Amino acid sequence: MIKKILISFMSLCFVVSMFLAFYCFFKPSEADTTAVLRATPIMIIPYGTLSDYLTTSGDSSTHYLFFCRFDSDDCNYVQDTVMKSLDAEQGSNLFDIIEYVDVSELENNLTINQLKDDWGFNTYPAFVAISNNSGELKVENYLQWDSENPMSTRELKQWMVDNKIWSGLFEEKDEVVLMP
């Protein structure tokens, strides 16, 4: 009788240990949510290569850039709230027309004031239109982040309309205007 109880107990221990081993082996790993992009940029341009990229892109070209950092709460807000609602409204991904510039290296090197020196704006996230005329880069206009007054969907939409890259409807003083 004791043999049967001992064999049953050992069998139970074996089954429990196998269950535990399989559970640990097949347990899904937790996703690193900080590495997940909010909206998916088509191309990411490191800040250090931006000038070369813009000057070699061809004459008479205009680039629409989104200066940001992946781990910035302000950037995540703009991507998750402002850009996401405009994606739905326009019916396409804004990163098809707006290029992502990663400013992480400026923050890491404590040279964030270089944005002002190079492009004329102070803070990020920022949307910037830059034209290339025979190798000379010119900032046409920009929409930058203000911590006192966060960027709105309406402001970004107006910036896109001003740059003629908005293809959806635009409401202007209670009128609906169809943009080309």
Task: Describe the SSE topology.
Blueprint: H1 2-26, E1 44-46, H2 50-55, E2 61-68, H3 73-90, E3 99-102, H4 104-108, H5 114-119, E4 126-133, E5 136-144, H6 153-162, E6 169-172, E7 175-178
Parallel strand pairs: 1-3, 2-3
Antiparallel strand pairs: 2-4, 4-5, 6-7
Poorly predicted spans: 33-38, 174-180
- Strand arrangement across the biggest beta sheet: 1-3-2-4-5
Write the element-wise H/E pattern from the N-terminal end onward: HEHEHEHHEEHEE
Q: Class in CATH?
A: Alpha Beta
Strand-pairing-aware structural class: alpha/beta
Main sheet summary:
5 strands, mixed
Average of the residue pLDDT scores: 79
What form results from the Cα inertia axes?
elongated
Would you give the CATH topology? Glutaredoxin
Oligomeric state of shown chains = single chain
Number of strands: 7
Q: How far apart are the termini? A: 88 Å
Assigned CATH architecture: 3-Layer(aba) Sandwich
Radius of gyration: 26 Å
Q: How large is the count of helical segments?
A: 6
State the CATH superfamily name. Answer: Glutaredoxin
Strand content: 15-25%
| Total discrete domains | 1
InterPro entries: PedC-like
What do these coordinates show?
This protein is α/β, with parallel strands linked by helices and 180 residues long. The chain has a single domain (35-178), classed as Glutaredoxin (3-Layer(aba) Sandwich), CATH 3.40.30.10. Helices cover 39% and strands 22% of the residues. It contains six helices and seven strands; from the N terminus they run H-E-H-E-H-E-H-H-E-E-H-E-E. The strands form two sheets. It has a five-stranded mixed sheet. Strands 6-7 form a two-stranded antiparallel sheet. Helix 3 links the parallel strand 2 and strand 3 (99-102). The longest helix is centred in the N-terminal third of the chain and has 25 residues, at 2-26.
